[in-house]
Amino acid sequence: MNQLADSYIQLLKKSLLNELYIENELRILHTFHCMLNKLPLDYSHFFNITKVQPYLLELVQESKLNGTMVVLGQHMPDGKNRPALELRNVTELSHTMVGRKRLDNLQYCMETVLKDQIEGDFIETGIWRGGSCIFMRGFLLAHGVQNRIVWAADSFQGVPPPTWPEDAGIDISRKNLPILVVPLPEVQGLFSRYGLLDEQVRFLPGWFKDTLKTAPIEKLAILRLDGDLYESTMDALNPLYDKVQPGGFIIVDDYEAVQPCKKAIHDFRASRGIHDEIITIDQYGVFWRKS
Ligand SMILES: C[S@@+](CC[C@H](N)C(=O)[O-])C[C@H]1O[C@@H](n2cnc3c(N)ncnc32)[C@H](O)[C@@H]1O
């Protein structure tokens, strides 16, 4: 790859992770920190935010590396610190929540399928604001690849409420996590901002159980699963796994983050006799290469 293409890919990652304007993210988090803890919001702090909040800066940098959440704390009268989890709905500011290590992994998988000439499109099931799919489309552009599609599958109304026994107790649907609801026009608008909304991106709006069986996908080189639940993982694997070509990749974003997702992977692999090695990406994500 030439230097210009590589610079573009690196810049795209920084932009998707909101690393370029990290001070503004800190300013917003600092504002919430002051509101939560009834502290004066000192105007002068905004000029020196990285000096005023060095610990928060480290936390945010860490979250962008590992795709983890930054949780602000509220000091309670009993001296304890209450994690203000509900603030996640207003403090997720990047265009992808997967973090740099998982974007690097996605880049590695894409580079490998190009190098080894593994045929097929790329898909993510569970795209949220679309950041990982934007990255895939930008990668194809940088490499001048015109014969692969990026498929973007999502309900665009968040995660379904749990109905399968394996997902019991995990309700991350819109009533609890409205941040996961990103309507299709908003996602398309983000692709457009990056100059990457074109015929090489196809959206599959709806629940996976309804959309993926009949999606006009022929071959896949990369199947990236990011639907959190057992149901969502199974509803993607069942119709799509056989479309992944030998030498293609299956990436599981939530393997160590959501136990039902891990169980779905183990149940599916056991039912199909799959023994390809599961490789760790970071503290949550894993992948394997189809033999
Ligand atoms: C954690 S987010 C995905 C994050 C994204 N991959 C990124 O790069 O930031 C999970 C997404 O999966 C979608 N989702 C989960 N289960 C689904 C299902 N069964 N059908 C359709 N969409 C689903 C949600 O709407 C949400 O956008």
Describe the structure.
41% of the residues lie in helices and 14% in strands. With 291 residues, the chain is an alpha/beta fold. The chain has 2 domains: 74 residues, no CATH class; 191 residues, Vaccinia Virus protein VP39 (Rossmann fold), CATH 3.40.50.150. The chain has a 7-stranded mixed sheet, sandwiched between helices. Strand 6, helix 10 and strand 7 form a beta-alpha-beta unit. The model has no long low-confidence stretch (mean pLDDT 96). The site of S-adenosylmethionine (SAM) has 24 residues, from helix 7 and helix 10.
The CATH architecture of the largest domain can be named as 3-Layer(aba) Sandwich
Q: How far is the N terminus from the C terminus?
A: 26 Å
Total number of distinct structural domains: 2
Overall structural class, as computed from helix and strand content, comes to alpha/beta
- The level of helicity is 40-55%
Main sheet overview: 7 strands, mixed
Bound molecules: S-adenosylmethionine
CATH fold group of the largest domain = Rossmann fold
User: Going across the major beta sheet, what is the strand order?
Assistant: 5-4-3-6-7-9-8
Q: Per DSSP, what share of the residues sits in E-state strands of 2 or more residues?
A: 5-15%
Mean pLDDT: 96
Secondary-structure element order, as H and E? HHHHEEHHEHEHEHEHEHEE
Q: Extract low-pLDDT stretches.
A: none
CATH homology superfamily name of the largest domain: Vaccinia Virus protein VP39
CA-atom Rg in angstroms: 20 Å
- Give the count of helical stretches: 11
